[in-house]
Design brief:
Elements: E1 2-13, E2 21-32, H1 35-44, E3 50-57, E4 60-65, H2 66-71, E5 73-77, H3 80-105
Length: about 120
């Protein structure tokens, strides 16, 4: 499993000042699954599982489902710091997905864990 991140800056016309342009920070992210992980995803039908739900601002909530992050997500931010916060949220969701896939790979397998 790999997390692919791509960052871009787009200049768009300002909605408040005629003729002015405003920067928008774009974060594209996608988790690239191995063939085995893709098989587990289909076998256990977990695409709609909510990996993470976090507020990045008072008015903005990010919901990340497995199907969404494996297909690819495009997130837009008005500033660089917000994009960095969003990036950390995506990384956290990806780590959680990796743990889920590792657990699913062990279904039906006995595991001995030394606790001390």
């Amino acid at each position: 499993m790999n997390l692919i991140l791509r960052r871009q800056i787009e200049m768009r016309p300002s909605e408040t000042i005629l003729g002015a342009k405003k920067e928008f920070f774009i974060l594209y992210c996608q988790v690239d699954l191995t063939s085995h992980e893709r098989e587990l995803l289909l076998k256990y039908n977990i695409g709609d599982l909510l990996l993470l739900e976090e507020n990045i601002r008072e008015s903005e909530l990010i919901n990340i489902k497995i199907s969404k992050i494996t297909e690819g997500i495009k997130l837009e931010y008005s500033n660089l710091l917000s994009m960095l916060v969003g990036e950390e949220i995506i990384k956290k969701a990806s780590i959680k997905l990796k743990r889920i896939m590792e657990s699913l790979g062990k279904v039906g397998v006995e595991e001995l864990i030394d606790v001390l």
